Amino acid sequence: MQVYKYFPVANDRMGMIWTLSSIEGVCIIEFGPAGTTHYGIEVVGSLNGDNNAKIYSTHMDQSDVTFGKYDRLEKSIVEVDENIEPKYIFVMASSVSSVIGAYVKSICRYLKDRVNSKLIPITTAGFKDDYNVGVENALELIINNIVKARE
User: Fold this and answer.
1) Is residue 117 part of a domain?
2) CA 44 to CA 2: how far, in whole Å?
3) Structural domain total, the chain
């Protein structure tokens, strides 16, 4: 076993959550285990990140993983839209649901006419890049989906 002196560099998923959590009035729904989302929120707090957004987890069980079910995610999106009424909901797959091939873009497309919030899919799962790329990707999502005037 090798001993490490420092924590590993945060991945792109964490960079996305860190950046988006600073936006007041938006919600982030992560399709994954509750523990993964809890860890993400803890890390954002330890990075002195603003915690203005509401971050939710769908939780997952064996049938979600085995059969690729999206019922929990769909119900979570509709519930957050009805109860919280955010203007924007960012929907992301956790590392676990990405492994089974969760395609959040299709879920957002399927639900867009059933909810009042604008659904914005996040397609990064934290496998490829460090947090800097996640911050860049989040800023690009914000520019393309939230910012009104562009120059």
Assistant:
1) yes
2) 27
3) 1
| Band of pLDDT at residue 79, cut at 50, 70 and 90 | very high
CA pseudo-torsion sign 122, 126, 129, 135:
positive
Q: How far apart, in Å, do the first and last CA atoms of the chain sit? A: 53
What is the span of the domain harbouring residue 116?
A: 12-142
pTM of the model: 0.84
* Higher-pLDDT residue of 48, 59: 59
With 70 as the cut, is the pLDDT of residue 64 above it? no
Q: Is 114's pLDDT higher than 70?
A: yes
In a domain, 147, yes or no: no
Residue 130 in domain? yes
Return the CATH number at 95: 3.40.50.1980
